[in-house]
Every structure is written in structure tokens, then in C-alpha cells.
């Protein structure tokens, strides 16, 4: 039965499965590292104990999420050699250095200061500890920069030449790193990470307010998170629109699939809100659409012409159904985040921010939606690039290793089994940590030296005699 499966499709699904598990952890840790830096900075500035309590509460969660992100990333990278060796051979001169720069700059920086941040408060001064926290936060952003540069080059490849054997040879490293889509993707992803973290922090705060536990700390978490959502959500919508315009310029076929435009529209294209893509008949069934709005959004002209998939050979089109719906999930959740931010402003204005149960339930429900939006955005980006691994230059079918379908299927089953057990346990543990109350990180010191070897017999006898 396994021999009848397609090795390329299985390899794609395996990479999609592993990277889907991986991407949620960096998206969370990027935002959480910056949040920790803000919390410690506010504690040093204001000396309000609540910020230090929240820092220690989220520090442990960050450590677990960071560890799972590292482990899932290492496993994912092995597939470049097992399932995608041809891709690695052809683009290695470009992708290899970019991945190496990420390790030498970002990962070394994070690893070097992570231990100080997690365990060094009582061993170094407050200034140095805050510096270590900042370095971890900056390291996560540098990591995102290199990874997104590599991915963006695969979407908009420039600055290279092709060797006679088909290898991509770097010609202009500045053009490769700062390729046309890189700035848009970097801004879009970092903002998505901040929104994802803010929604999680807000959900935890709302959860404790609903349970009426740790009200001071819960209010602070919820308030800080909602300010972030309120400010960043509209910026993200604007950044997403700019990213879409860049995609229209460099990857027009992806936009056609996202918009569901099977047909060209010479006099203005409609915005299809919902429908069911029918790839056999090349149309959107049951379409709910607004005339000419797509032309207005994409070209700022109601009557601007837009090409459709009828101008693209069938074997060069991405899977429209997946791209069409993943894009709508991402956009819909983006506007839901904007709505939550506006709801929080309304509750602040009414003075019901800390006791409006409907608002708290909305914040709790929206807690995991940042992860869903990140995954939907990733699916839109990567599936919309098909049938290429390097857009317009290297087909996916020409990138896969000469490996049999049963071999890929066997490793895929093993990945699914291990991932659900290992990362399921990790996520369960994180949720347990979130459900606990933030504890006082600085208990009162006892009068006298600390004895780590057990009870002092002489002191115990002395206390006994005094008791008599």
C-alpha cells in the first residue's frame, strides 16, 4: 500500500508537519522574550514588586517553550539531508551560510545569556541581569531575521547565478539577504509573534480573573496584553496589506490563488469574501463577493485590471483550495484581534475592564488564536509558492531526494507518534504552569546563615531547651 503513495507528497507533508510544530514555539518565545525584558525593565524603574513576580512566572514558561523550539528545529533540519538532499545540494551555497549566520549570531547569543537570565538574579547585579534578558530578547529577533531572510530569498530569489551543474551561486550577498520580500516578511512575522504572545498573556490573566485568583497580577497581565493587542493589531493589518502588495509584484500567481481569481478581470476584480474553490471547473462556487473591491485594495483603482489563473498553466498553479481558505483564516483572525483590542478599550472607558465577564471570556477564547493565525499565514506563504521551492527557479519535484515512498512514510509515522507524545506533554506542562498562581520570587530571608546540609543539631537542642 505504501508503494502506491507519492514520495514527494509525503516528504512535503512530513516537512509541513514538523515545521508546524516548530513554528509555534519561536513565535511564542520571540514575543515572550521581549515581554520579559519589558517586565524586568519596569521593575527596575518603578520597583513595583508585581513586575518581578510576573517576570519569574513567565520566565519558567519561556524556558520550556524555548527548549521545545530548539529540539523541534533540530529535528526539522535533518530533513534537508534525508528528504530534500537535491534541494540542499542546489541551494546550499546560499541557504547554508544564512542558516550558519543564524547559529553563530542569534543562537550563541541566546545560549550565552539564557542561563544568566534564568538562574543568575542572585549571582549578578540587577543591571547585568537585565542586560542578559535584553540579550536573549535581541537574540530571538536576530534569529528571526536570518531565518526569514533565507525563506524570503526562496520566495523572491535575487543576487545569484546558476552554475552549469544547476547550483545557485551567490553573486551579491546584500541583495540575497535584503531580497525584495524580506522587509515585509520580517515585520509581519515579528508583529505576529508579539500579537501571539500578547493573546496568551491576556488569556492567562483573564483565566485567573475568572477564577478570582491573584487579582493584582492577573489585572496587570491582562492590561499589558490588551494594550499590546490594541496597538499592534491595526499596525499588523497595515503591514499585511503592504506585504500583499509586495507579493502581487513578485508572486502574482500566489495572489490569484489567495483571492480565488480563476478568471482575469480587465475592468476591475471583485473581492471574494467566501466561497468554495472548484478546481475541476476553475471557479468559486457559492461565491459571496463585493464587485471591484479587490482591484481597489491591490491596485487602489476600482477599474484596474487583474489577471487570473486562466493566464497560468495548470501545472504551475498552487493548490487554490488550501491557499484560499488559509488566507481567509489568517485575515479573519487578524480582524478578530482588532475587535478584541477595541472591546478592551470600551471596557476601560466604562470602568469594567477587571470585572466584565464577557470580555474576560473573549480574551480567554482568543488565547490560542495567535498560533492559529501564524500557522494559517505560514500555509498561505509556503503552499502559495508551489510548485516551486525556489520561486520560478527550482521545482519542488526536482528538489526531493531519490528516496522511496515507504521510507518517507515510515519516518513520517514515527515523527507523528513521537511528536504528539513529547510535545503534547510539553504543552500540557506549559498549561499547568499557566494555571498556577504567580509566586513571590523573593521570600523573606531568615535571620542567620542558610544550612543546606540539614537541621543543625546544636541549634535544635538549644531551641528545645528554650521551649522548656
From TrEMBL:
Transmembrane regions: 20-45, 57-78, 98-120, 127-148, 186-210, 222-239, 322-346, 358-379, 408-431
Any Pfam family the entry gives: Cyt_bd_oxida_I
GO molecular function (one): heme binding
Gene Ontology biological process terms, A to Z: aerobic electron transport chain
Membrane topology, from the record: Multi-pass membrane protein
Regions annotated as coiled coil: none
Keyword line: Cell membrane, Electron transport, Heme, Iron, Membrane, Metal-binding, Transmembrane, Transmembrane helix, Transport
Principal location: membrane
Family listed: Belongs to the cytochrome ubiquinol oxidase subunit 1 family.
Protein name, UniProt field: Cytochrome ubiquinol oxidase subunit I
Organism: Rhizobium setariae
Amino acid at each position: 500500500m505504501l508503494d502506491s503513495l507519492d514520495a514527494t507528497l509525503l516528504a512535503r507533508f512530513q516537512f509541513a508537519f514538523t515545521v508546524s510544530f516548530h513554528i509555534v514555539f519561536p513565535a511564542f518565545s520571540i514575543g515572550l522574550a521581549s515581554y520579559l525584558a519589558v517586565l524586568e525593565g519596569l521593575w527596575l524603574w518603578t520597583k513595583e514588586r508585581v513586575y518581578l513576580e510576573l517576570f519569574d512566572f513567565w520566565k519558567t514558561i519561556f524556558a520550556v517553550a524555548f527548549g521545545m523550539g530548539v529540539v523541534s528545529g533540530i529535528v526539522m533540519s535533518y530533513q534537508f539531508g534525508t528528504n530534500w538532499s537535491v534541494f540542499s545540494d542546489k541551494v546550499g551555497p546560499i541557504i547554508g551560510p544564512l542558516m550558519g549566520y543564524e547559529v553563530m549570531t542569534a543562537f550563541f547569543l541566546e545560549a550565552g545569556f539564557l542561563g544568566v537570565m534564568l538562574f543568575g538574579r542572585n549571582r549578578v547585579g540587577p543591571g547585568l541581569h537585565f542586560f542578559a534578558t535584553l540579550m536573549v530578547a535581541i537574540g530571538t529577533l536576530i534569529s528571526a531575521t536570518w531565518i526569514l531572510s533565507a525563506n524570503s530569498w526562496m520566495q523572491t530569489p535575487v543576487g545569484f547565478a546558476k552554475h552549469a551543474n544547476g547550483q545557485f551561486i551567490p553573486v551579491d550577498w546584500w541583495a540575497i539577504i535584503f531580497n525584495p520580500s524580506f522587509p515585509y516578511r520580517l515585520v509581519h512575522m515579528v508583529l505576529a509573534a508579539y500579537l501571539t504572545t500578547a493573546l496568551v498573556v491576556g488569556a492567562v490573566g483573564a483565566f485567573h480573573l475568572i477564577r478570582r485568583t491573584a487579582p493584582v497580577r492577573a489585572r496587570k497581565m491582562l492590561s499589558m496584553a490588551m494594550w499590546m493587542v490594541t496597538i499592534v493589531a491595526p499596525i499588523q493589518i497595515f503591514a499585511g496589506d503592504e506585504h500583499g502588495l509586495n507579493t502581487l509584484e513578485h508572486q502574482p500567481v500566489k495572489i490569484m490563488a489567495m483571492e480565488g481569481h480563476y478568471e482575469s478581470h480587465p475592468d476591475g476584480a471583485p473581492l471574494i469574501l467566501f466561497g468554495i474553490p472548484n478546481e475541476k471547473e476553475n471557479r468559486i462556487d457559492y461565491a459571496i463577493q463585493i464587485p471591484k473591491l479587490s482591484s481597489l485594495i491591490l491596485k487602489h483603482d476600482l477599474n484596474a485590471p487583474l489577471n487570473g489563473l486562466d493566464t497560468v498553466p495548470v501545472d504551475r498553479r498552487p493548490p487554490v483550495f488550501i491557499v484560499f481558505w488559509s488566507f481567509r483564516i489568517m485575515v479573519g483572525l487578524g480582524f478578530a484581534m482588532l475587535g478584541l483590542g477595541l472591546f478592551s478599550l470600551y471596557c476601560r472607558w466604562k470602568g469594567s475592564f477587571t470585572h466584565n465577564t464577557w470580555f474576560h471570556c473573549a480574551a480567554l477564547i482568543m488565547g490560542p488564536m495567535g498560533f492559529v493565525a501564524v500557522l494559517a499565514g505560514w500555509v498561505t506563504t509556503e503552499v502559495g509558492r508551489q510548485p516551486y521551492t525556489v520561486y520560478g527557479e527550482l521545482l519542488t519535484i526536482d528538489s526531493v531526494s531519490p528516496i522511496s515512498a515507504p521510507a518517507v512514510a515510515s519516518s513520517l509515522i514515527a515523527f507523528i507518534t513521537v511528536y504528539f507524545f513529547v510535545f503534547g506533554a510539553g504543552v500540557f506542562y506549559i498549561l499547568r504552569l499557566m494555571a498556577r498562581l504567580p509566586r513571590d520570587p523573593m521570600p523573606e530571608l531568615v535571620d542567620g546563615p542558610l544550612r543546606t546540609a540539614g537541621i543543625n543539631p546544636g541549634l535544635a537542642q538549644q531551641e528545645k531547651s528554650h521551649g522548656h
